[in-house]
Amino acid sequence: MFKIINRLLKKIASLIVLLIVISLIVTMFYPVGYKNIVNKYSKEYGVDPYLVLSMINVESKYNKDAVSNKNARGLMQIGPQTGLWAAESLKIDNYSESLLFEPEINILIGVWYIDQLKKEFGDRSDLVLAAYNAGSGNVNKWLSDDNYSKDGDLTNIPFNETDEYVTKVKKNHRVYKLLYKSYMAKPDTFSSIYIDGIINLRNILIKVLKSFR
Question: Looking at the whole model, is its pTM more than 0.85?
């Protein structure tokens, strides 16, 4: 009897370890963070929180200190002009580009900017995402060109980077909505607590690995 219980406990332990390893691997490809900030501003501006999570992953891989070769900064890769425009509209006191490295400010501006693009292009996610990446001026130009559009929708995006960006975000959106629906909607459930634990473990492992470089 004792041997049976011992074998059963070993199998359970192995399954738990396997579940943790799989979860860590998943969060390496589809990390998540800043749940409260994302929920806060997504609700305020009526933006899909899973879209925001997906865009952060594609834009910066959740690196709050990320800087692009075009000087876009932070989690949602806010450019200098967009940052200044948002700061004036949102009346952000003592604004400077260094504030774009602060998650709260960066996500606020990113979600606000998505809302501005939704006001311009409606709920057509392809247009909103393309405009976020390439600028609304380019998207409007493509929409007025029969080579790239039909019936008010983009049929062909001439910028490879933007085309790939839209595809990646839409793919990420499907995955994030599947993986983190309960986590984002119900913060006190077991699954939410488990994911928080996995995220903390992942961050510790990343710090440990960086220390060996």
Answer: yes
Active-site positions read 59
Consecutive 10-residue runs of the chain (213 residues): their mean pLDDT? 75 76 79 94 97 98 94 97 97 95 98 98 95 96 93 91 97 94 77 80 78 75
Extended beta strands in the chain, E state: 149-150, 153-154
Question: Residue 173's closest CA among 125, 140, 133, 122?
Answer: 125
CB atoms within 10 A of CB 55: 26
Map tokens 């976020």 to a residue: 132
Q: Which residues neighbour 166 within 8 Å (Cβ) at sequence distance 6 or greater?
A: 126, 129, 130, 133, 157
Query: Which amino acid makes up residue 82?
Result: T
How large is the angle between the packed helices 136-143 and 125-134, nearest 10 degrees? 130
